[in-house]
Specification:
It contains 23 helices and 12 strands. By secondary structure, the protein is an alpha/beta fold. About 7% of the residues have low confidence.
Length: 593
């Protein structure tokens, strides 16, 4: 079958988010054809170029999300009136204060799914059934109305930048029943919201939804929510192509975390939270199947309106081969060394880890801590400097004798250094791998440690408990004492470390491999196409529907012809356009006997 793969800021860009699992998915499903539609997040990403794609990728089309060139389309009076109505209805459905679009989860700290303080309280109130459905229909109708207008007129960029858009937004915010925070929005805040909505609605102006693009796919697979899933919604609207949405990190939650109190005014945060909540609800409502990467993401989807019957949890597929040598030698690491591997940033809470290690040293004087990872951007570099200074303060250089060179028990290293030439070497360096995060989605580093057969100590955040499954020790986040006690317990018990490491490796090989991931998506693809086949009507020269234009063989997955065989067009087969063969009259047939 033909899959339209929709990505945002990831595959096939070099170094894009989620690029590895998308590449592994495409390469692992060679029996299908893929067309990749990629949205870029910045100029730097586009300048890096694209990764080589396998033969089953027919074409790659890209579009920028970070900028939009004015399309130069001048609307007539009727088109302007139509845009004002649809855009006004869209923002009115967002700011209506009676029935929010979603009810975000506020569970325990383990899931890290609670809504941050940046989300207005009015955005998380429970939704009333009838009113919520009505607003969802209004939002969807307005969204597709704008998409149809863009298709007919040639784009929406100029209209979204016009004064009419700002006036419609202001009118919606001042209307009775609007969110209290929205009613307080001033002109600069309205302009900021209008600019954000312009970028968020850029997919409506793309020419990806015709019969020569996504309309020719058997299904659309969006690898994230937000803009990528919006493209899939439009393909479903225009061509009835079924939509599959995969979320390994919930787009709505990422928006909340990024738009903190320091980033924007309360009115801007309230309006944008309402819009993204409505869009997420529409995606979850119209997708045929949702595939979250863990129970953490699944809970977010369910609380935002997704139907449980249409949710299938599919864990990310990771390459286990590179860790085989380390995993088969569990005793190769230093029995006194703790290892932390990851990207250095505040969310990883290395400060708590350093304080915990200070407690560990009191119980185990020979213990050492190796922090392996590069800083994540300028904020990560500053955080790394702070951690280095704290380590120097907590652990002054120590020497065994008066004439020995002092040594610090904490070391900060990066992959590629002489001491750690490759990622598997980082996990092989110690006996226990530690994860100290306060915010975590799917813990990739934890799975890598499991592939290496290492015992682990982790904080109870994100999908950690779901991933570890009883094969490691889990402690509360921001609790250095509990973290230290767990580390000491494993350092003192080598037999327990060995048992936990073997169990963790077996669990990782069973659940988190590339092969498991590809097989799961292959089954989901077949399930969707069998339930929701795309029925294309082919017209003949007179404009009448042509029967049997798409033969039944086209529904069979795989390739039935050799590489040198002539492939028939996807639209109208040659035998369907030739003149019909008239039947021989019965009498004439008997006379020829």
């Amino acid at each position: 079958m033909r899959i339209g793969l929709l990505t945002e800021g990831g595959y096939p860009y070099v170094g894009g988010d989620a690029g590895l699992w998308c590449d592994r998915l495409v390469r692992g499903l060679g029996q299908h054809e893929f067309d990749v539609y990629a949205l870029s997040r910045g100029r730097h990403q586009e300048q890096q170029g694209l990764v080589p794609v396998p033969p089953q990728v027919g074409r790659v089309r890209t579009a920028p999300l970070w900028t939009a060139v004015d399309d130069g389309v001048a609307y007539g009076r009727r088109a302007r009136r139509r845009f004002a109505e649809c855009y006004g209805e869209l923002v009115s459905a967002c700011v209506d204060g009676d029935a929010p679009a979603f009810s975000p989860a506020r569970p325990s700290a383990r899931s890290s799914a609670s809504v941050p303080s940046s989300v207005p309280a009015s955005s998380s109130a429970p939704a009333s059934g009838v009113a919520s459905e009505d607003l969802a229909d209004r939002f969807g109708s307005a969204l597709y109305g704008l998409a149809e207008l863009a298709r007919e007129e040639g784009g929406l960029v100029g209209a979204l930048r016009s004064d009419a858009a700002v006036r419609a937004l202001e009118h919606a915010c001042r209307a009775p029943g609007a969110l209290r925070t929205a009613r307080e929005a001033r002109v600069p805040e309205l302009l900021a919201v209008a600019a954000h909505l312009e970028r968020a609605l850029l997919p409506l102006s793309l020419d990806w939804y015709g019969d020569d693009a996504l309309g020719a796919a058997d299904l659309c697979h969006a690898t994230a929510g937000g803009p990528a899933a919006l493209c899939g919604l439009l393909a479903r609207h225009f061509s009835d192509v079924p939509l599959l949405v995969t979320e390994y990190g919930v787009h709505l939650r990422s928006h909340y975390l990024a738009l903190g109190p320091e980033a924007a005014a309360p009115a801007v945060r309230a309006l944008l939270a309402a819009f993204h909540g409505r869009l997420a609800a529409e995606v979850y409502r119209k997708a045929e199947i949702l595939t979250p990467g863990n129970a953490h993401a699944r809970r977010w989807q369910e609380r935002c309106g997704a139907d449980r019957a249409r949710i299938r949890t599919v864990y990310p597929g990771m390459a286990a081969d590179r860790f085989s040598e380390v995993g088969e030698s569990p005793d190769a690491g230093d029995p006194h060394t703790l290892v932390w591997v990851g990207r250095v940033e505040p969310a990883k809470d290395l400060v708590s880890l350093l304080h915990a290690f200070a407690e560990v040293r009191k119980e185990e004087p020979k213990a050492r801590l190796r922090v392996v990872g590069a800083p994540g951007g300028p904020e990560g570099a500053a955080y790394l400097g702070h951690c280095r200074a704290l380590a120097a303060q907590l652990f002054p250089d120590e020497a065994e004798g008066a004439h020995e060179v002092g040594d610090n028990p904490v070391s900060f290293e990066e992959i590629g250094a002489p001491e750690v030439p490759a990622l598997p070497d980082a996990y092989a360096a110690g006996a226990v791998v530690v994860l100290s995060s306060v915010v975590e989605g799917f813990p990739v580093g934890l799975v890598e440690a499991m592939f290496c057969g290492r015992a682990t100590v982790s904080t109870d955040v994100g999908a950690v408990v779901e991933v570890i499954g009883g094969t490691g020790l889990v402690v509360p986040p921001r609790n250095p004492r509990a973290l230290a006690e767990a580390c000491v317990a494993l350092l003192r018990d080598p037999e327990r470390r060995e048992r936990l490491g073997a169990a963790a490796r077996a669990r990782a090989l069973e659940l988190f491999t590339v092969e498991r991931n590809a097989a799961a998506f292959d089954g989901i693809y077949l399930e969707i196409v069998s339930r929701c086949p795309v029925r294309r009507v082919v017209l003949d020269e007179s404009g009448e529907p042509l029967p049997f234009a798409v033969p039944a063989e086209s529904r069979v997955p795989g390739r039935l012809t050799g590489p040198t065989a002539r492939v028939l067009p996807r639209t109208v087969p040659a035998w369907a356009t030739s003149p019909p063969v008239r039947a021989t009259p019965l009498a004439a047939a008997e006379g020829t006997r």
